[in-house]
Design goal:
- By secondary structure, this protein is α/β, with parallel strands linked by helices.
- It is built from 10 helices and 12 strands.
- The protein has helices at 34-44, 56-66, 83-93, 111-118, 130-181, 187-219, 230-240, 242-248, 267-284, 327-339; strands at residues 26-30, 49-53, 71-75, 98-103, 122-125, 227-229, 251-256, 264-266, 290-297, 304-312, 343-346, 354-361.
- A 5-stranded parallel beta sheet has the order 2-1-3-4-5, sandwiched between helices. Strands 7-9-10-12-11 form a 5-stranded mixed beta sheet, covered by helices on one side. Strands 6-8 form a two-stranded antiparallel ribbon.
- Helix 7 (230-240) crosses helix 9 (267-284).
- The chain is globular and about 80 Å long.
Length: 362
């Protein structure tokens, strides 16, 4: 890439007029050559908030720390992670970010792969002149605005639906809970009201999953991205399923490999995946079982971790069936795993003590 030394002429500055200009749109350039990154930052910082990263892994770490960029421009050939792989990760983590790829003569066989894997908005061939870069960046910013507007409309629609569902569910839950706690009511009435409470909670949970699934299905929404240390997430999961554990007279413990205690994951989707799987596992095992949720490095592949749930049951000879998920839950888990480039294996009779294992990239 040799556009770093090119100067964007002052006469073309007006073409950068863009409705988000006052917010200084954030642009990230990714290349393993320091002079190129510095040159791009120098030439474009007048118009944008420009950042640079020396390779894909550094860029992903930066995005996780600072949040979404409007546009990411990546070289194809980089030693730690090629551009197609990097832009695929960007697409998974921040789908609204517009992705641009720079390719050279040696990349003739890769453009279609890059488009398919990374959802590339434009391909620029090196050497790339300043005028071409200016034109493409302007188009990319307009595309970013379009996607953001679409996301806002869909989020508003889903949020309205959620509110309309939440109010009657809350009223029904409050009413049933009061009758279930009223000692003056006959026992059969209280039992019936407790059943209603449980069903309302299940319906509320299913509604939340449906909304998550629809937002992911329609536009890959990650608007509420929050990064959290994985061990802390496991503690939150334990608290979330505590009531179900008590009702089943089961225990759940967690353990994280010491070197992975600082590992951060995206909270929303990982919480959804683990909540669904752990809840299904609790329903699967018999009473008085102990469940162990364990995080460790993947033995077969570096840069990956594995989350496993094992069961210790009262009868060692008991063979547990595989986890059974509802169709919506199954599709949601599969889609969320795909977003994280994760691989999920559910239990079978040949590996009876392991309920599931989820392998993730780090």
């Amino acid at each position: 890439m040799n556009i770093g030394a090119q100067n964007i002429q002052q006469s073309s500055t007006e073409s950068f007029e863009h409705e988000n200009l006052k917010q200084r749109p954030r642009i990230l350039f990714v290349d393993d050559e320091i002079p190129i990154v510095l040159g791009l930052k120098r030439n474009l910082r007048q118009h944008f908030e420009v950042e640079g990263a020396l390779g894909g892994r550094q860029a992903l770490d930066m995005m996780k720390e600072t949040g979404e960029f409007a546009v990411v421009v990546s070289d194809m050939r980089m030693p730690d992670m090629d551009g197609a792989t990097f832009l695929k990760e960007v697409r998974n983590l921040f789908p609204a970010t517009v992705r641009i790829m720079l390719t050279g003569d040696q990349d003739r066989d890769t453009p279609q792969e890059a488009i398919n894997r990374g959802g590339v908005f434009r391909l620029l061939h090196k050497p790339c002149g300043a005028d071409d870069m200016e034109k493409i960046l302007l188009e990319a910013l307009h595309e970013y605005d379009r996607v953001k507007d679409q996301r806002k409309r869909i989020e508003k629609l889903l949020h309205s639906f959620e509110n309309e569902m939440a109010t009657p569910l809350h009223i029904l839950l409050e009413f049933s809970d009061q009758w279930a706690s009223d000692t003056h009511q006959p026992e059969y009435v209280r039992d019936y009201c407790r059943t209603i409470c449980d069903k309302v909670k299940e319906l509320s949970e299913q509604t939340n999953r449906f909304l998550t699934f629809m937002s992911l299905k329609d536009y890959q929404s990650r608007a509420s991205t929050q990064w959290l240390e994985l061990p802390l997430l496991l503690e939150i999961i334990c608290d979330a399923v505590r009531g179900k554990l008590v009702s089943r007279d089961c225990e759940l413990s967690t353990h994280a490999f010491s070197d992975l205690e600082g590992l951060k994951v995206e909270f929303r989707s990982m919480h959804m995946i683990l909540s669904i799987l752990v809840s299904a596992a609790i329903e699967l095992v018999p009473s008085n079982s102990r469940l162990q949720l364990h995080i460790g490095p993947n033995i077969d592949e570096q840069q990956k971790v594995c989350i496993r749930l094992n069961a210790i049951v009262p009868d060692p000879e008991l063979r547990l069936p595989a986890i059974s998920l509802a169709q919506l839950e199954q599709q949601l888990v599969e889609q969320l795993c795909d977003l994280h480039s994760g691989h999920l294996e559910l239990s079978d009779e040949d590996n009876n003590h392991q309920i599931f294992s989820l392998t993730l990239k780090i």
